[in-house]
Write a structure and sequence with these properties.
By secondary structure, the chain is of the alpha+beta class. 39% of the residues lie in helices and 31% in strands. The longest helix is centred in the N-terminal third of the chain and has 24 residues, at 25-48.
């Protein structure tokens, strides 16, 4: 999801790219809890009739499923905020595990969208300014990467030194 916000005077643009993982932490634990309760209930019924190994396997399955869901949730949670003004481009890349902030010179910045060698792979989106570059939107689909590249290009065009080249 791409969100573009312009300041009132039009001198600052804030673009936010978010992943499509809509499940919050409360929903994640509700899902894990519901699946665990149902699995353990059915395994307990089988154990009551003497098939006790099923209960041990069900406990292992519940623990493994919980670990997989939590790990997938952490990996899919991503937000990138690109703030563009007349002085610099500030890129804040946030993940569940932490964040990284990069600043680029807006005057010499270029946005590139390169298609990889394998045709059905999603293109790579990158902002480059001098020797510094930042890859963006690795979790976005192709259409969203194109929209993000277009939004960033439009925002930096008013401050770019490349216009005169």
């Amino acid at each position: 999801m791409i969100i573009v916000e312009n300041s009132r005077e039009g001198r600052c643009v804030r673009i936010q790219a978010k992943s499509h993982f809509s499940l919050g932490i409360k929903g994640l634990f509700t899902l894990i809890g519901t699946l665990s309760a149902l699995t353990l209930l059915l395994a307990s019924v089988a154990a009551w009739f003497g098939y006790w190994p099923i209960l041990a396997i069900a406990v292992f399955q519940v623990v493994l499923l919980g670990m997989i869901f939590v790990r997938a949730w952490k990996a899919a949670w991503a937000v990138e905020t690109i703030s563009i003004n007349s002085e610099c481009i500030a890129v804040l890349q946030e993940r569940y595990s932490g964040h990284k902030r990069t600043e680029l010179d807006v005057a010499w910045a270029r946005v590139t969208l390169q298609q990889p060698d394998i045709r059905w792979y999603s293109p790579d989106l990158e902002i480059r300014s001098g020797r510094c570059s930042v890859k963006l939107g690795e979790y976005l689909n192709t259409a969203e990467k194109r929209k993000l590249a277009e939004s960033i290009s439009r925002a930096i065009d008013q401050f770019s030194a490349w216009q005169n080249q």
